[in-house]
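Session log. Operator J.P. requested a structure for one protein chain; no other inputs attached. Running the standard single-chain path with token output.
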Amino acid sequence: MNAEVRLMKNMLEANDQVAANNRDFFASQDMLVLNLIGSPGAGKTTLLLATLDQIDDYNVAVLQGDIETNIDAQRVAQTGTPVLQLNTHGACHLDARLVQQGFQEMSITPDILFIENIGNLVCPAQFDLGETAKVVVVSVTEGDDKPYKYPATFHCAGAVIITKLDLLEHTDFSIDRFLDGFRAVNKVAPCFPVSARTGQGLRPWLAWLKEQCSKVKTEAV
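Structure written below.
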């Protein structure tokens, strides 16, 4: 094992230890924690805003990850949702310790915690944050080949959301081709085609979200 591989292995093991602590804590608080993963421009924040608008019967908080700036955190804050900006200043993913520190700074215990990760389909999938599930977001404008190119990311997904459905007719994106690639690596997780701008397809996603929240609370009993 060369030095670079050993360093990466040590980093992942150290991160996994903190992630396990996070997971235990979140479970003790009956919290549903979702790690939103997707490329830059996939529509993660727009989806999040549309979701927040529909789940006001839940206490929700957001940890907003970006390399720099707090632009998206400001958008979330305008909804009245508690949000904390996490800037990595160069790193292409959030890690468990940064999430731990950020959540401790928020000093709240929501029903649902959304963690919007850095725009990237590779590194965020490798670093466990202690989340209940990873939700992979991909837009129709990115192409339907993402599950074929990034199988590990889609394999670990608890759910997948295809965004910008209102633009589908203007692209060559094939939902069937996408699903063929997705099901080749993940036969269980649901896939929700949605348009956050028109509201199309949001109802099944919201129903799944509420079901997962109830499941977390039931398992804690």
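Operator note: Residues 3-220 form a domain with the Rossmann fold fold (CATH 3.40.50.300).
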